[in-house]
């Protein structure tokens, strides 16, 4: 049963070969029956031949019965194969539909992610430009602060020199 479920085509081929063999065997047995019947009419040992004839006829009936059963099983297997093929086709259609829906959903998500990425790139560009501008302003302010410090230092030195000079002059005037 497991083999027939796994590979019904193989089972059908095997049974077709069995049917063909049984049919050939049935034909052979029919020929033997005819030969035995001819012998029966010419040979005086009728009881032995009658017995053989009965055995051959019995075997012929068994063979024909088995062949009929194999044919019936073959028909059943073919029907099951057709049913399974229809189910497989239906399942494949369902998967195709589901795949199409999933593809649309993923495509939509990808488009949204692409838009978000573009927006983030624009924001990044603006942020980098602002950072560069602020860096430049900071450098300018630091340079201006440095210049002012130097100016204050010079002014302080000059003021100290003027005060010192004033003290020296005012000390001489007294």
Q: Structural class of the secondary elements?
A: mainly alpha
Uncertain ranges: none
What distance separates the N and C termini? 136 Å
Shape summary: rod-shaped
Round the mean pLDDT to the nearest integer and report it.
Answer: 87
Strand percent estimate: under 5%
Radius of gyration: 55 Å
Task: Characterise this structure.
The protein is built from three helices and no strands. The chain has helices at residues 2-6, 8-42, 46-173. The longest helix is centred in the middle third of the chain and has 128 residues, at 46-173. The protein is rod-shaped, with a radius of gyration of 55 Å. The relative contact order is 0.05. The model has no long low-confidence stretch (mean pLDDT 87).
């Amino acid at each position: 049963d497991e083999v027939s479920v796994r590979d019904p085509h193989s089972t059908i081929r095997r049974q077709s070969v069995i049917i063909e063999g049984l049919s050939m065997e049935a034909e052979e047995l029919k020929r033997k029956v005819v030969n035995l019947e001819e012998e029966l009419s010419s040979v005086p040992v009728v009881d032995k031949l009658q017995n053989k004839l009965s055995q051959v006829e019995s075997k012929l009936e068994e063979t024909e019965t088995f062949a009929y059963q194999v044919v019936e099983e073959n028909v059943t297997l073919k029907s099951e194969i057709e049913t399974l093929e229809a189910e497989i086709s239906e399942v494949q259609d369902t998967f195709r539909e589901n795949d199409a829906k999933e593809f649309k959903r993923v495509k939509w998500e990808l488009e949204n992610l692409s838009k978000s990425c573009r927006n983030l790139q624009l924001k990044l560009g603006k942020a980098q430009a602002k950072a560069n501008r602020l860096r430049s302003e900071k450098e300018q302010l630091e340079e201006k602060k440095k210049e002012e410090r130097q100016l204050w230092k010079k002014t302080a030195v000059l003021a100290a020199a003027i005060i010192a000079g004033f003290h020296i002059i005012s000390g001489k005037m007294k």
